[in-house]
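Example 510.
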Amino acid sequence: MEGGILILDFGSQYTQLIARRVRELGVFSEIRPCDAPLEEIRRCGPAGIILSGGPASVTAARAPLVSPALFELGIPILGICYGMQLLTRLHGGRIGRSTQREYGRAELRIGKRSSPLFTNVRGNSVVWMSHGDSVLELAPGFAASARTSDGTLAAMEDRRRRFYAVQFHPEVIHSAEGKKILKNFVIGIAGAARNWSMKNFVAHEIASLRERCAGKKVVLGVSGGVDSTTLAVLVQKALGRNVTAIFVDNGLLRLNEVEEVLHSLRRLRLRVTCIDASARFLKNLRGVSHPEKKRKIIGKTFIDVFYRGLRDFDFLVQGTLYPDVIESNPVQGPSQTIKTHHNRVAEVRRLERQGRIVEPFRFLFKDEVRQVAKLLGIPSDIRDRHPFPGPGLAVRILGDVTRRRLDILRRADDIFIAELKRSGWYDKVWQAFAVFLPLKSVGVMGDERAYGNIIALRAITSLDGMTANWVHLPAAVLEGAAAQIVRRIREVNRVVYDVTSKPPATIEWE
Ligand code: XMP
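Predicted structure in complex with xanthosine-5'-monophosphate:
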């Protein structure tokens, strides 16, 4: 990362956003845990270092710190929130609990002395604050460079040593001048190299795959989703015939999905082997109704089928994305509850120790993968598919997963999605699907009262799946889908629409 920006992570929910913003400036950035060894930091050769925010109090006995030797490297530093308090504490200033926790919008007022951090930044602007501590006394060598409208210290600097700090979060969109402030640090102060682009990234990854794996046997798993398809195309482009893609049919996929996925992967000229393990998955799931138990069983069965079934290969390529990588961060912020489905399995750790895991996307975010997909010429019907959970329809059938229920759900889901596509709504929503409810409600069929199953429909918009809003689909679209579902699926006599957002509800029903 010579000439890029290194971000030391103290556990803020916004750390990934900092990395994003730096990349948007065309500069490579990488996140490392705050306790990364100094030698490693030096080896990276960053043009600048950003100390992220974090949930801890810098005054706490076990507050995460950095080695004071970091400040002797002569590298420009920007401290954000916790980073600012840390700079203060380690340089002999004083920190105290704020009388009230500041959270949300504040008015930034830049001081009279023009600071390189605020070049071309408006004198007054809105910033996003979120902190419980504040700097009561500046450390020797530092001067205040901005305050909020109520007089709270909002920015400080030691220009001689090129240390800068802000109490607010320039990386979040609510800080109106945030991008400019980050640019002033990254380009103006640190002089980082602007040589990051997706095109360079693709060329670089292809070259390094060839260097590492040429002439070797390479395997990777594909699901039909955008990440694994893009990865497979990239690897294929780099290594050609030595690549085998493996697709596991877990029996929990949507209507005709297996055929469609295989068809579209083969259309991209990938060599795909399909393992039909559906009977094994369904057998292991028999009688299990607890959602997390289902996930565990599906995860374990997948490991048995995929990793333990792997024979005769040199390298396993994985589609790990950046959010997965930094979820193994030692500082646990509020955003970092580790998802069970991302935990690394023992098989992978063993291969890792042997140096046989390759992860070309480990520095990318999801939407960056979409850009790579576009560069690689992957058609839009694959690029724009809605996300689909690893445990598949098992978490969309409340209660036991049976063949009969799967069959009903598949047909209902297919009708709903077709209706969304027909009406032009598919591309306007982030995710949409049907859910099977294991209840019977009363209905009339002909002259008789009959008990039938209930299907719930859900459509949401979201940026990243962390929060979501339910979509106000036109009544005609909902009615069209509902009418077809009850007409074509004999077992269903009632369709309902989910009008809850996340939070408090999750996107999936289980
Ligand atoms: P929730 O339901 O947590 O979903 O609001 C957020 C996003 O994650 C997907 N999801 C999963 N994906 N394994 C996955 O690979 C899982 O166990 C899982 N659970 C939820 C969900 O579809 C949504 O896009």
